[in-house]
Amino acid sequence: MKKLLCVLLTSVSPLVFSSDAFAANKPSSQLPAVTVTAEKDSLVSPSVAEAKEKIDLIPGSVALVDSKEFTDSRAVTIKDMLDFTPGVLAQPRINEESRLSIRGSGLSRTYHLRGLNLYQDNIPLNLTDGGGDFPGIDPLALRYVEVYKGANALPLGAATLGGAINFVTPTGYDADKFGARIEGGSFGTLREQLSSGNVIGDTDYFASISNLRSDGYRDFSDQNNTRFFGNIGQKLNSNLETRFYFTYGDLNQELPGNLTKTQLREDPKQANGFYKSNNWQRDVDVYRVANKTTWRGDNIEINGGVYTQQQDLYHPIYVLIDQHNSDYGAFVNGTVKGTVAGKRNELTLGTNLSTGDTNAKQYVNLTGDYGALLAEGREKADTQTFYAENRFYPVNDLALIAGSQFLHSKRDYEDRFLSNGNQSGEKDYYGISPKIGALWDVAPGLQLFTNLSAAYEPPTFNEVEQQLPGAAGLANIDAQKSTTFEIGGRGTWQHVDFDASIYHSWLRDELMMYTVAPGQDAVTNANKSYHQGVELGAGAKLADNLFANTDKLKFRFAYTYSDFRFDNDATYGDNRIPGAPEHYIRTELRYDHPSGWYVAPNMEATPKGYNVDMANTLKSSGYAIFGAKAGYDITQNVTVFVDARNLADKTYAATTDVITAPGAFNTAVFTPGDGRSFFAGLTYKW
Question: pLDDT per residue over 393-415, tens digit each?
């Protein structure tokens, strides 16, 4: 199948373009609008409308979430931002730290995600080895979020099972000149934010600083997090803009740990005694500087830039982890619009280059203080990706898409602590991930799509560093490979907006957890497995003028069906892959009154529990929790909100760890969800 995809890609790639003919295929009345947008908005950072237009050209399941959808209530976690995006599993583990997966990506990893690429303003956020976290992401400092599932992320250069998420920040062109927000509520929570944005001649800026303090729902779950984000842009002329980004995050969290199922039922607020007595914490300092420059011609756009991210981690757990990460990267991509054989055509080419260096140490954890040195090494990663995607229109309403990504990734580990054996070693990974697809505009506001794509995912250092005591070199782990078929549609029918997709992924060498020695579990390669599912999102306007003139009653719904299984595995047979619910449902009914107030009850449900072990003998329990939010525009500049969650005070597991099989000492794998809570906030904008 990969050979067939490569042949199809090769047949498209050498096309020659006529640079002026694309405009002739567009109504001339649209051209002035493009010019006005370029003057009014940032060239580097597209507006919501422009981003929506671009993302709707992708022949697969994607989503754009406007920040207005989550900042009118308490917005702290990834779940708060993306909970109504089908296919995305985002569940808080502890405070802001979340488990994040799309279409079953990285299910064996319950922390420090894998198999999913993160971006901020189209600039990579992941570490060079592919692992990822989001300590610098602040929902209050975002304009919108883009979600690209699976190979639909190829326009960003990503080709993974999970795809990519792009967090887009405001600029001076779309930010308020001054903003202030304060909110607080249950668990001793208090958060403040100040922000400002403006345009001064050809220069614009945006800046936001926020602080969040909370005692947490559970014992030993305090957090104190401060974040700063800023960017400054300069239009060098009407077609050229450069923008610099600055991020700082200081996050300090206590880790109460997981509970057994019995402990969860008896007292979900309690901390795991071992975690608390050994003072488990996760403290992160992150510094990030980036530049992106955009040049737009009549039928061409070129983007390029550089970035660096420095991260310090102090992490006392079963050992005390002390790490400093330095990552550097550069990127360039371009899109050319023209014609081939008189038909509209669009070609995108790009590359992402990155290198990362980590000084990794482990000590005996003396209740949060440094004990004896246990391990020390230098982790060096290098990754180069090159990608291309071509979009050809044989007729005006049908786009045929072909593309591919080539990836080279290197892992180089220098062991500097040799008393337990020399684990130094190098591994190189090379992969090609082709894709074909089609997008049909059936009618105004209605699209159908399909695609067939491959993905290639090298393991991170967390997998290739040996887990067996005394073992030499790096672990012999192959890259995860997958091929995915997807079909679906999106659009508007009468008063209903919808986005629906069905997919099936065939995987080889999926990175899964096995028992590799007596009492020793580690991540290695499964032989064959598959992921398949259904993703359905819908919003409907149920009524207008119900109780007052121009009032509105709206309903939105998100449903994810996930079926992830081993395929005749030597150890696990055809068992379900643990870590994700089979059904996940999110609903909201919202009433907006013309006087400026709204109320919106909501529900989250996992009708039945899911497996937490590969052997399929231990499961979580199903649950349904109910909440409501409400708000009022006091004036044009002042708004207030209240957000009530888990009103019935339901005890449930928000997420779990993943294990091979339950034993006498490893069943504390359940992370309690927060109990009944109430939050309120006030925002001033000018």
Answer: 999 999 999 999 999 999 999 99
